[in-house]
Amino acid sequence: MRAGRFKLCHTLVADVAFVAIATCGAGRFEMLKLDLILVRRTCFPASPFSKIVRQFRRSLFGHNGLPLPDGFCILRQSMRTALISDIHGNELALNAVLDDIHRRGADQTVCLGDVATLGPRPLAVLERLQKLGCACILGNHDEFMFEPSLVADYTRIPVLLEAVAWCRDELLSDAIDFIRSFQGSLKLPLDDRNELLLFHGTPESNVADLLATTAPEVLDAMLAGQQATVMAGGHTHIQMLRQHRGFLLVNPGSVGIPFKEYVGGGPPTVLPHAEYATIESTGGNVSIQLHRVPLDRAALRKAALSVDNPICASLAEMYA
Ligand SMILES: [Fe+2]
Question: Does the N terminus or the C terminus of the chain have fewer Cβ atoms within 10 A?
Answer without folding.
Answer: C
